[in-house]
Design goal:
Number of helices: 16
Largest sheet: 6 strands, parallel
Distance between the termini: 6 Å
Helix content: 25-40%
Bound molecules: adenosine-5'-diphosphate, magnesium ion
Number of strands: 17
C-alpha cells in the first residue's frame, strides 16, 4: 500500500506538491479548469494542515523558446488563487535565487507555484528525461513530496519519479481516488464487466484490448477500430480508417475470443468526412469501395443496450463514431445516454471520450470520470504506473 497524505505528518514542513495543471488555455484564458479543481481537496488539506506548499506542474509541450509564452503557468496560478481565495505566489522560474527566496519566505499554509516544469526541457529534456541533477535540485527545496498528478503517473519525469526517489513521499487525494476506483473495477469488478473500446487506432490500444479480454465478460469494439477487424476477416471496408500494422493482431484475437468481442453488425457509412456527406446505414459486409465507416448503426446500438443494461461494471475509453461531426455523432450520443441511465459502476477515460460526455450532457453519480487519459489507459493495460511505484509504502 502506498502512503497517502493522511498517513504523513506535514505541519510546518515544505511540501513539494506535483499537480497536473495541464489545462487547455486559449489566448491566455483557461477554457476548462477541471484539472485545477480536481486537486483542490489535496491543496486545502495541506494548506489548513499548516504545510508550506510548493506546487510543480507541467503545461503543454515545450520544444522551443517561443513555447514559453504559450505555456506559462501564470494564468493557472491566478485561477488557483481565485478558487482557494488565497494568495498563490507565482515564481516565473523553475530554479534559481527567486525560487529559493520565495520558498524561504514561506509561512505555514503559504503556497508558492513555480513555472512550468517543462521549461527545463529546453535544456536537454531535463524534466521529461528525469535528469538526476534537476530532480536533486527540486528535492532540495522541500522535506516531503506529494504526488497528486494522476495524468502524468505513467511518465517518468524529474518532477514526479525523480523527486519521489529522493524524498519521503505520499500520494494526494486525487491520485488515491483514481487509482482506487480504476484498480477496483479492474481487479475486483461486480460482474458482468463490460469494457467498451473505441477511438481511432487499434495500435494505440493493442495492450488494452489484450488485457480487457483477460478480465472482462464482454469487450465492445467501436469507433474506427472495427474496420481493421473486418479487413482482417476479409470484408470490404471501403475508405474506412484501417490500421494495417494491426491486421494480424486483430485476426488472431478475434479467432481466440469470438464470443467475448462484440463488433458492430451495422454501421453508418459516408461519402466523405464532412457534415455535408451522403450517409447510409449498412450491414458491415455490404460496404462499398467509396464509403467510409463513421458511426455504429441502430441494430448495433440495440445490442449494446441489451449488454450494457445487464452490466454491473462498465469501463469506457474512446468514442464510438466521429462524434465531432454532427451527422456522425448519433452512436456516441446514444451510448452517452445509455451510460447516463446505467446503474453500473463506471470508469470513463480519454480526452475525446470526456469531450463527448460533456457535449451530450452526461450525468451519473456511479461514474468515475478519470482526469488522466494516458495513465488510465496504462492501468487498463495492466501496467504499473512509474509515478506510483516510486511512492513510499505505508
Ligand atoms: P480518447 O481521447 O477518448 O482516448 P481516441 O483519441 O483514441 O479517444 O479517439 C478519438 C477519435 O476517434 C475521435 O477524434 C473520433 O473522431 C475518432 N473516431 C471515432 N470513430 C471513428 C471512425 N469510424 N473513423 C475515424 N475516426 C473515428
Ligand atoms: Mg484522444
Amino acid at each position: 500500500m502506498k502512503k497517502n497524505i493522511t498517513d504523513v505528518k506535514f505541519k510546518g514542513l515544505k511540501v513539494i506538491l506535483r499537480c497536473d495543471f495541464n489545462v487547455p488555455i486559449k489566448d491566455g484564458v483557461i477554457t476548462d479548469d477541471t484539472r485545477i479543481k480536481s486537486s483542490l481537496e489535496t491543496i486545502e488539506f495541506l494548506m489548513y494542515g499548516g504545510a508550506k506548499i510548493i506546487i510543480l506542474s507541467h503545461l503543454g509541450r515545450v520544444k522551443e523558446e517561443a513555447d514559453k509564452l504559450k505555456y506559462s503557468l501564470l494564468p493557472v496560478s491566478k485561477r488557483l488563487s481565485e478558487l482557494l481565495n488565497r494568495e498563490v505566489v507565482f515564481v516565473p522560474y523553475t530554479r534559481g535565487n527567486e525560487v529559493e527566496t520565495a520558498v524561504n519566505n514561506m509561512k505555514n499554509g503559504d503556497i508558492v507555484m513555480l513555472e512550468n516544469t517543462r521549461f527545463e526541457d529546453l535544456d536537454g529534456k531535463k524534466e521529461s528525461g528525469n535528469d538526476l541533477e534537476l530532480a536533486k535540485y527540486w528535492a532540495s527545496l522541500g522535506d516531503l513530496f506529494v504526488n497528486d498528478a494522476f495524468g502524468t503517473m505513467h511518465r517518468s519525469h524529474a518532477s514526479n519519479v525523480g523527486i519521489a526517489s529522493l524524498l519521503p513521499s505520499a500520494i494526494g487525494f486525487l491520485v488515491k481516488k483514481e487509482v482506487d476506483e480504476i484498480s477496483s473495477a479492474l481487479n475486483n469488478p461486480r460482474r458482468p464487466l463490460v469494457v467498451m473500446l473505441g477511438g481511432a487506432k487499434v495500435s494505440d490500444k493493442i495492450g488494452v484490448i489484450e488485457n480487457a479480454l483477460k478480465i472482462a465478460d464482454y469487450v465492445l469494439i467501436g469507433g474506427a477500430m472495427p474496420y481493421t477487424f473486418y479487413k482482417a476477416l476479409g470484408y470490404n471496408v471501403g475508405g474506412s480508417l484501417v490500421d494495417d500494422a494491426s491486421i494480424d493482431f486483430c485476426k488472431r484475437v478475434y479467432e481466440e475470443n469470438k464470443s467475448k468481442i462484440i463488433l458492430p453488425t451495422d454501421v453508418v457509412v459516408a461519402s466523405s468526412m464532412t457534415n455535408e456527406a451522403n450517409t447510409r446505414l449498412t450491414s458491415v459486409n455490404m460496404i462499398n469501395n467509396n464509403e467510409i465507416g463513421v458511426d455504429v448503426g441502430v441494430a448495433t446500438l440495440s445490442e449494446y443496450k441489451r449488454i450494457l443494461s445487464s452490466a454491473n461494471t462498465i469501463i469506457w475509453n474512446g468514442p464510438f463514431g466521429v462524434f465531432e461531426i454532427p451527422k456522425f455523432s448519433n452512436g456516441t450520443r446514444k451510448i452517452v445516454e445509455m451510460l447516463s441511465l446505467s446503474k453500473a459502476k463506471m470508469i470513463i477515460g480519454g480526452g475525446d471520450s470526456i469531450a463527448a460526455l460533456n457535449q451530450f450532457g452526461f450525468n451519473n453519480k456511479n461514474a468515475h470520470v478519470s482526469t488522466g487519459g494516458g495513465a488510465s489507459l496504462e492501468m487498463l493495460e495492466g501496467k504499473e504506473l512509474p509515478g506510483l511505484s516510486v511512492i513510499s509504502d505505508v
